[in-house]
Specification:
The complex is a heterodimer of chains A (339) and B (106).
Chain A: E1 2-9, H1 13-24, E2 29-32, H2 41-44, E3 50-51, E4 60-61, H3 62-73, E5 79-81, E6 86-92, E7 95-100, E8 105-113, E9 119-122, H4 130-133, E10 138-139, E11 152-156, H5 160-169, E12 174-179, H6 188-199, E13 203-207, E14 209-215, E15 222-227, E16 232-236, E17 239-242, E18 246-249, E19 260-261, E20 264-266, E21 279-281, E22 286-287, H7 295-313, H8 328-333
Parallel strand pairs in A: 1-2, 1-8, 2-5, 8-21, 10-17, 11-12, 11-17, 12-13, 20-22
Antiparallel strand pairs in A: 3-4, 6-7, 7-8, 9-18, 14-15, 15-16, 19-20
Helix pairs in contact in A: 1-3, 1-7, 5-6
Chain B: E1 3-7, E2 13-17, H1 24-30, E3 50-53, H2 66-72, E4 82-84, E5 98-100
Parallel strand pairs in B: 1-5
Antiparallel strand pairs in B: 1-2, 3-4, 3-5
The chains are: A alpha/beta (339), B alpha+beta (106).
């Protein structure tokens, strides 16, 4: 069990800056995120897209913003727990116990949910029978590529993941690549490579096709694909891979007894606390009258929520308002040497 | 004000006056039409405001930007008449537009 003052759920820009604000006022925290890296939507949805509305930063990409925030919180040596989704929240005395799907356990005075629109999960095939094969012969990510050796793999999708895996697996497997249109969203060089491999007979490319059905006894043996014009093809397949990006799901947070309206957690605007004392929500996931889904709003919400956490973490102390320009304590926490 | 008709997956029809300048997605969200999630808030980054446009309207809509077709690859059951409703800005020209909301967004 990891004991700290605050657990932040979500390592997007809002969660990262909130960690900074906690650090400045002398509280400790740990951060959990379901993705394999920090940055949230900034890194997952638009790492290369410029953002123009961060105060005092005329232009930066999602990746640059994330890297700068990580640099800003470096003095606090915050632990990240990535690839972890929070599952369970339990009140124990005046503390909260949280468990993740990877069985990490935290004992904290308060929790700040900075979960964006929820945790990122792979988008799945619309075809119902796919569920039956998920995890044995149908996957949305590749964990162990050796299982595909000398097998027939049908890959669906037109983005970088689909193209990269089609190219990679074509070395050792028979690969079918199926995409709903002629155009691809992946890198142009990969598209060219896939077309070359198709010409050489190393990949079978099917464009304007989508999955119609999958069948098999315990594992998949056949995939049916349907052309835009209605023609149906049956292709033999040992494995099916689907790469349709990620979707955000609120997940277990829904069951924590929070007031939730339209997938958003209701908070007050004084310190962004929810209807449950000690549980705060900031950033895209919170809702209040006038809420703007901007990164800068998330920063403000995080600053106030951090201060809201103080009385739970240090009930016997009084928080004094200080500026980083003049506060010796804050500067010490930032690791700045005074002369 | 232009009227936009949203056919939801539960076979209900909602015809709403939507102000010029709002998007078809915003018209749905502001009027609590079920089935449009718009997770990213209108940034063409998530494909959860996916709609099917009635055929007679397909050619009358502004053309898709590059990014829209890429995002539609990620949508749940995309078809030829798929659009992201956050990219359809309401104007008098769109008066009478009919969109059909898919069974789910992801």
């Amino acid at each position: 069990m990891i004991k700290t003052d605050v657990l932040i759920i979500g390592a997007g820009p809002t969660g990262l800056f909130c960690a900074h604000q906690l650090g400045i006022i002398g509280l400790t925290c740990e951060i959990v995120d379901n993705l394999d890296k920090a940055g949230g939507q900034c890194i997952e949805l638009y790492p290369d897209k410029p953002i123009y509305d961060i105060p005092a930063i005329p232009e930066c990409t999602g990746e640059e913003l994330t890297n700068n925030l990580l640099k800003q919180i470096k003095p606090f040596n915050i632990n990240f727990h990535l690839n972890q989704r929070v599952e369970e929240l339990k009140k124990v005395g005046n503390r909260w116990h949280i468990r993740t799907n990877g069985n990490k356990e935290f004992d904290v005075a308060s929790v700040i949910i900075a979960g964006g629109v929820g945790s990122f999960e792979p988008r799945k095939f619309p075809v119902k029978e796919c569920e039956k094969f998920e995890g044995n012969s149908l996957f949305y990510s590749v964990k162990d590529k050796t299982i595909f050796k000398d097998k027939t793999i049908s890959i669906f999708g037109g983005g970088d993941s689909a193209l990269d895996w089609a190219i990679e697996l074509s070395n050792t497997s028979k690969v079918n690549l199926i995409h709903r249109r002629d155009g691809f969203s992946g890198a142009e060089s990969s598209v060219q490579k896939v077309k070359e491999l198709n010409d050489q007979g190393k990949i079978n490319l099917y464009t304007k096709y989508q999955m119609e059905a999958v069948s098999g006894e315990n594992n998949i043996d056949t995939v049916k694909i349907k052309h835009d014009e209605g023609e149906i093809k049956e292709i033999k397949s040992d494995y099916v891979l689907g790469f349709f990006g990620l979707i955000m799901q609120l997940g277990p947070i829904l069951d924590w007894g929070l007031n939730i309206d339209k997938k958003k957690v209701e908070v007050n605007t004084e310190n962004f606390e929810t209807n449950i004392n000690g549980i705060f929500a900031i950033g895209d996931i919170c809702s209040y009258p006038g809420k703007l889904k901007l990164i800068l709003s998330g920063f403000h919400e995080g600053a106030l929520a951090a201060r809201g956490c103080f009385k739970y973490a240090k009930p016997d102390e009084k928080l004094r308002f200080e500026f980083t320009t003049t506060s010796k304590a804050a500067q010490e926490r930032l690791g700045i040497k005074s002369d | 004000m232009p009227k936009i008709t949203y056919n939801t997956h539960d076979n209900n029809t909602h015809t709403i006056d939507v102000q010029n300048g709002l998007t078809v997605m915003e018209g749905a969200i502001q009027n609590d039409i079920p089935g449009i999630d718009a997770d990213c808030g209108g940034g063409m980054s998530c494909a959860t405001c996916h709609v099917y446009v009635n055929d007679e309207w397909l050619d009358k809509l502004p053309e898709k930007e590059d990014g829209e077709e890429d995002m539609l690859d990620m949508a749940f059951e995309p078809k030829k008449n798929s659009r992201l409703s956050c990219q359809l800005i309401v104007s008098d020209k769109l008066d009478g537009l009919v969109v059909n909301i898919p069974s789910k967004q992801g």
